[in-house]
Design a protein that fits this description.
The chain is an alpha/beta fold. The chain folds into two domains: about 270 residues, Alkaline Phosphatase, subunit A (3-Layer(aba) Sandwich), CATH 3.40.720.10; about 110 residues, Gyrase A, domain 2, CATH 3.30.1360.180. The strands form five sheets. The protein has a seven-stranded mixed sheet with strand order 2-17-8-1-7-5-6, with helices on both faces. A four-stranded antiparallel sheet has the order 11-12-14-13. It has a two-stranded antiparallel sheet with strand order 3-4. InterPro entries: Alkaline_phosphatase_core_sf, Phosphodiest/P_Trfase. This is Alkaline phosphatase family protein.
Length: about 400
């Protein structure tokens, strides 16, 4: 292996180790469900909640632990706090798809925010702007963990924003069980707690047979939204973190008092975030040498996908690669599709997924974000908080046992 290949491989998330893709299968296994492996040593339970906090990277807890004392109490102990890798790119679509399916991006196929649908010859969005011509079940054919858990006898509940009930992303990677929706953070936690207490009587009393296990997915996106708008160093973001900490503590305390060790509440996240100053938000579309022979651009501002026209010669592709190295090589890891796949950035890559990955990838590690304004319009340039690349700030996320039960 060459020095460059080793450098690129060192950036790959640990898909076979401490990775977010193992959280939901491990949670199902901790409930005693057949067909699942607990790769993370989660505490056994009969009521398990996976609390997904969009945008809460491990570094952000470290930086703001004084504003999240309940979460930090679990984070500080090796018995109840661990660090996982998110997916590549470190973005919501890729990581939540890994969480929901137990697969790396190279298998589930959500390899970015905007990615190429080759048969349509256009870039399609993997979040709120999902293309109606893209069937979620065909785009992502692996059975979601929630659906598998339901088939194995668990009661499965998702608590999230109402607008996500029938979203294409939900259909693709989080389908299964019942959906309960609430718009506001406090209402979401109350709804989740009420659903659990309604499912199971309190500890004690007559009961016949083993109780039906319950697996809940609870989604919180307030930190991510606030971070994009104001930045993770802002007072607004800190207040959002304090609200999350308060609601999580109330939720766990209420349920732990009622159910004791029947309950396990696990917190994780899909990516971290860092602030990019206005002068660091750059439009690369104005530089002709960077787009010569490029038919489509995709990805996100810190993990750009470039798709060449099929007629672009090897010489043109090489020249564009060199142009990107010259312009951004000191602030980004720049790799061809083959290099990134061989390095394991996306885990094992299925043949159907490979064309969705850019011919050339630009993973930023400097204090910049790269936009193709001609495609996206100018509005995204206002975003302060950013994520997507392979830096530790963006990739490293927490796994916390909020009920205080130790990992094995």
């Amino acid at each position: 292996m060459t020095a460059r290949a080793r450098e690129l491989a060192a950036l790959a998330p640990a898909y076979d180790g401490a990775h977010i893709r193992h959280v939901m299968p491990s949670a199902a296994a901790s409930l005693g469900l057949d067909g699942f492996l607990d790769r993370l040593g989660l505490p056994e339970a009969s009521l398990t909640v996976v609390l997904m906090v969009d945008g809460l990277g491990d570094e952000l807890i470290a930086r703001h632990s004084g504003h999240a004392r309940f979460l930090a109490s679990a984070w500080r102990s090796s018995a109840t706090g661990r660090v996982l890798d998110a997916a590549a790119p470190a973005t919501t679509a890729a990581s939540i798809a890994s969480l929901g399916t137990g697969e790396p991006p190279g298998r589930h196929g959500l390899v970015g925010y905007d990615v190429l649908a080759p048969w349509l010859d256009r870039v399609v969005n993997m979040l709120g702007g999902w293309d109606p011509a893209v069937d979620p079940a065909r785009w992502q054919p692996h059975e979601p963990v929630l659906r598998r858990a339901e088939r194995e006898g668990a009661r499965v509940l998702t608590v999230s924003r109402p607008k996500f009930a029938d979203s294409a992303l939900t259909q693709a990677v989080l389908s299964g069980g019942e959906f309960l929706g609430a718009t506001h953070l406090d209402a979401r936690f109350r709804l989740a707690a009420d659903a659990i207490t309604g499912h199971r009587p309190a500890t004690g009393g007559a009961r016949q047979g083993s109780p039906q296990p319950l697996l809940m997915y609870l989604y919180v996106d307030e930190l991510d939204k606030t971070g994009h708008r104001y930045g993770v160093a802002s007072p607004e973001w800190v207040r959002a973190l304090e609200s999350l900490d308060r609601e999580a503590e109330t939720f766990v305390t209420r349920l732990r008092e009622r159910f004791g060790d029947q309950l396990s509440v696990l917190l994780t996240a899909d990516h971290g975030m860092l602030d990019i100053a206005p002068e660091g938000r750059l439009d690369f579309g104005a530089e002709e040498a960077l787009l010569r022979g490029v038919r489509h651009t995709g990805g996100e501002p810190r993990f750009v996908h470039l798709y060449f026209d099929q007629h672009a010669s090897a010489a043109v592709r090489r020249q564009v690669h060199e142009a990107w190295e010259e312009r951004f090589g000191d602030q980004a890891w720049i790799a061809t599709r083959d290099e990134a796949v061989d390095a394991g950035w996306f885990g094992p890559v299925e043949d159907r997924v490979r064309p969705r990955i850019g011919d050339l990838l630009v993973a930023v590690h400097g204090p910049i974000a790269l936009y193709h304004v001609a495609r996206t319009g100018p509005d995204p340039l206002t975003m302060v908080g950013q994520h997507g690349s392979l830096t530790d700030v963006e990739v490293k996320v927490p796994l916390l046992s909020l009920t205080g039960r130790a990992f094995g």
